[in-house]
Amino acid sequence: MKKNFYIIYLLAIVLVIINAVSFAQTTYTVKKGDTLSLISLKVYGISREWKTIYNANTEILESPNRLALGMKLIIPDLNNKKEIKFQPPSTALKVKSRSIEGRSSREKLIKLADEFNYTWKVVCERDFPPYNYVDDKGNKTGLDTELVTAILNYLKIEFEIINYPWNRVVNSVDTNEADFAYQFVGKPERFEKYCMIGPIRSGITLFAVRKDSKIDNYGTLSDLKKYSIGHVTGYAYTDEFDSAEYLNKQDVIDNNLLVQILVKGRTDLIIGDLNTLSYFAKANGMYEQIRFLPKILKEVPRYIAFPKEKKQQSELFEKGLNAIKASGTYDKIIKKWK
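RESULT FIELD:
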C-alpha cells in the first residue's frame, strides 16, 4: 500500500513537471490583424505583456511591429501572474471593459491605447515646411508634426517620426512598414486603399511664376498648355491637374528644387502649397523674385493615412484627434503656425 502511494506520488510530480514544461513552451500562431499587444491580451488577459512575448521571440522578430501571418511565437510562462493566465479572450475583454468604467474620457482612451503598447513608426516627407521639417537645431517640427505629436502624447503612445522622400512615405504605408504617414491629399482611390483619418487641416494649392513673367492669370488649365509647369513627382494636387496629360509637366524631387528651377528660368510656372512654396522661397532668398497667380486651384484637405491592416490604430488616433479638438489644443497649435 505504501509502495503504491509512492508510485502515485512520483507520477503526480512527473505530471506537474510535464505540465510546467508544456506551458512554458506554449506557442501562438499569428493571425490576421494581430499585434503583440493583442496577442498578450488574448493569452494573458492583459496587453502590457507584449514586451515579454517580444523578448522571447527576438530570433524571429526584427521589431515589435514586424509580425507575419502564420508566424509561430513562443508564449512564456508568467509565474507571478497566475490569476490572469490564459483567460479566454471574451473574459479578458470583459475584465478590460469593467476596469475602465467610471474613468475620464482620456483615461479610457489611454487604456485602449495599451492594446498597441509599442513604439509606433510614423513617417512623413523630409521637407514640407511649415507643416513638417527639421529645424536648424535638428528638431523635427512643423504644424502637422505638432498636431500628430499632440495626439499621440494625449494617448500616451510611444512613437518615432522618420523623414523619407515622398515616394518612400507612400510605399511605407503600402507595405505596412509604417503605422501611419502624414499628410495625404484626400483622393477617392486613397480612401479605398488606406484608412484615412481627418482632415487634420487644409492647404491652398495654386501656381507661382517669376515676378517678371508675362503670365498674369488664366481661365482654365488648357490656357497653360503652351508653358512648362514644375511639380513634385508623386504628389497629388487636384484631379484636373493630375489627369491633364496635355500639360507640359516637369518632374522634380522636392519643393525646394521646385522654387529654384522657377527662379532660374528652367520652368515657366510651378504648382504647390502656398505656405510651402513661400517658405522655400524665403529660405533661399528668392521670395521677392516670385509671385503667386491670384486664382486658387483648390483648398486641399490633408489626411493621415493608416494601412488597412491597422484599422484599430486608426480609429484610436481619430478619437485622439477629436479629443485635442475638444480640449482646445488643436486650435492653439493652428493659431501658433498661422
